[in-house]
Design a protein that fits this description.
With about 160 residues, the protein is mainly beta. It is about 5% helix and about 50% strand.
Length: about 160
């Protein structure tokens, strides 16, 4: 497993899920990162490939994410990138996770109002959310419904 510090800018692709563990709060969400480039032939900006990362937050950061970040929000995430490969059903899968140390709204795309959390307290917890489906459709399968057009999976082939 490789590990590198990164700063990633993208949109929240799944509603953050927060859990209370024996080690403290833990939150995760999927982040969609789409590159853009200038297409000289069309003379316009064009969306490139979209990469999906699972973002993990711990302790106070997790509680604050649960109270501040929603599906579709543009965010900036700083943390350790962890890339893993594994074998499943005879295929090689790659997953990319970011163990976040800081998360904030991308202020180049909107405004945000900061509220400091008093020491020793955590932000008001959002109501529990059902666990999302983190799997990717089988290779070659066409995505037809709106929900299927926004993948929530970790693995890519």
């Amino acid at each position: 497993m490789n590990e590198t510090m990164v700063c990633v800018v993208g949109n929240v692709a799944t509603q953050p899920v927060c859990r209370e563990l024996s080690t403290g709060s833990s939150a995760r969400f999927r982040l969609a990162v789409t590159s853009r480039y200038w297409d000289r032939e069309k003379s316009e900006w064009t969306d490139g490939h979209t990469n999906f990362f699972t973002v993990w937050a711990r302790r106070t950061l997790a509680a604050n994410v649960a109270s501040s970040v929603s599906l579709g929000d543009p965010v900036v995430v700083q943390g350790r990138l962890k890339v893993r490969t594994e074998q499943r059903d005879g295929q090689s899968w790659v997953s990319a996770d970011v163990d976040a140390v800081a998360i904030g709204h991308d202020l180049s795309r909107g405004t945000s109002a900061f509220r400091r959390t008093p020491r020793g307290e955590t932000a008001t917890q959002a109501p529990p959310q059902p666990e999302p489906n983190w799997e990717t459709p089988a290779p070659g399968r066409r995505l037809d419904t709106e929900a299927e057009l926004h993948p929530e999976a970790v693995g890519v082939t």
